[in-house]
Amino acid sequence: MPPPEAEVTAAYAALHAAIDRIAALDTTPASDADVVRAAEMHEHATRRLYPIGLRRVGDVSDRDAHRRLGHRTLSNFMTARLRITDPKRRQDHMKALLQFHALSGDLLDPQCPTLAQAAAEGAIGPDHIHAALDTLDRIPAKVSADEKTRAEAMMADFARDHGPAGIEKLGARILAHLDPDGTVTDDADRARQRGLNLRGQDAQLMSKLSATLDPLTRAMLDVVIAAWAAPGMNDPDHPDSPRGSADDVDDEVLREAARRDLRSQSQRNHDALKALLQAVLDGGLLGTSHRGLPPHLIIKVTEEALREQAGVGETTSGAVVPISDVIDLAAKAQQHLAVFEGHRTEVLYLGQANRSQRFALFAADGGCSAPDCDQPFATTEAHHAQKDWAQGGWTDIIDLAPACPKHNRMVGHKRGQFTTHMVSDGPDAGRAAWVLNGEDTIAPNPLRINRSHDLAEALAAYRRGERLTQAPRGPTPRGTHDTRPPPERRRVPKLIACRWSVTRYDPATMRPAT
């Protein structure tokens, strides 16, 4: 007989039933005032639920329940089980708003009690909390605890009537008041705040780069911009524009190039960075190999995109490049061509891990094969997914899958490690399946296949009116690897092409197809 349902889970079941009832309501008979009031009540309820949700995750952490399921960290559990998209931000909010026990067992007050109270009342939401915590994190370490407490209370009260943008403006004034001439800030504060973030590509394949630079890095960047982003230098709109540093160019040539340069300073900065990166790649400063691949721009592209000259290519770092840029790059490059038939991935067979296999793995998988991992292929290693090398596994391409260093070392028999095997049939044939090992007393975790690198195929399937088949969700036997016999070995000829072109042939006549 199953144990009786706990009060907390019964309450959440009732909450979901209430949500179902609210979702089914017809607001047509309601007055305008009632509709407005309902919208206000909904947002208030959503904000009140947020800190309660933080407490629920805290309950899991306090009991180490995530570790019993096999998750090594709370962040892994939040991402995989709760599908929380930004676990670090959520954990920052937990540290600031929740009460934790001291070593003595006493329950401590929250780090930010005024913010915690406003959140519990539903007066502020996650974005308000994040903006306030960002300002508190930038307060210099030498500022007194009383001043920090007053700053936290001021921002919490301000957030009750203003949005996150207003909190950021107030935070700037608070920081200016606490350290008006910058003398309180020390090297430790600067080191803590330094960073550079490259955001994902948007619909136009453009990416935003934001950075907080320490003083020395800023000074060095100023030197680079002065020399490489000078008017007329590294102008992609004019092929005869001088390249490299302005210090190496004749003055008259530079003046002529500057006269026809219509770019803004921001655009010149961008083009200088692009030219500098190109010089690094071409100059051999990155060495001769990185994770089995040459440290150059490596792009995979479908035959359909090449044929139609429409679409995009994908690099080992996960970036997407328009097909027009791919064609321009191909004219100057040594190509390594991998061709796939239809929507299947028939790849190379080789007896040992080498550069050709790395090319094949990138072409077939595109990134780490572990579930929920978005690490691009450039960061991965070759993982023996069918049977571990130490146990006599084959180092053949049909038994290998890319895995980032963290996940490659998380395969094993123990709790918190993964069981892996290669799928041998169906639409996922040739893909690595992963199962997280938990305790026998808890329901097994589902078998999962990482599809975060399948965006191109997902879009193609959508256009064909299809859906990608999902991996089975049922339990699978525990153990490091699948114990089924390995699939029959088939040797596939190695294909190497330099300065290649593609022509489609009719197999019956062996003449170019019309």
Verbal overview:
α2 crosses α5, α7 runs parallel beside α9 and α8 runs antiparallel to α9. Helix content is 40%, strand content 8%. With 514 residues, it is mainly alpha-helical. The radius of gyration is 28 Å and the shape is globular. The longest helix has 32 residues, at 32-63.
What is the strand and helix layout of this fold?
Layout: H1 7-23, H2 32-63, H3 65-68, H4 74-80, H5 87-97, H6 113-120, H7 126-137, H8 145-159, H9 164-178, H10 187-193, E1 195-198, E2 209-212, H11 215-228, H12 251-259, H13 265-282, E3 299-300, H14 303-308, E4 312-315, E5 320-322, H15 323-330, H16 355-365, E6 381-384, E7 400-403, H17 405-408, E8 418-422, E9 432-436, H18 455-463, E10 505-506, E11 511-512
Antiparallel strand pairs: 1-2, 3-4, 4-5, 6-7, 8-9, 10-11
Helix pairs in contact: 2-5, 5-7, 6-8, 7-8, 7-9, 8-9
| Principal-axis shape | globular
SSE order in H/E notation? HHHHHHHHHHEEHHHEHEEHHEEHEEHEE
Main β-sheet description: 3 strands, antiparallel
Strand content: 5-15%
Q: What is the CA-based Rg, rounded? A: 28 Å
Tell me the distance between the termini. 70 Å
- Mean pLDDT across the residues is 76
* Model regions low in confidence, pLDDT < 50 over at least 5 residues: 288-295, 337-353, 468-504
Question: What is the number of beta strands?
Answer: 11
Across the major sheet, the strand order is 3-4-5
Helix content: 40-55%
Number of helices: 18
- Given helix and strand content, the structural type is mainly alpha
List keywords for this structure.
514 residues, mainly alpha, three-stranded antiparallel beta sheet, two-stranded antiparallel sheet, 40% helix, 8% strand
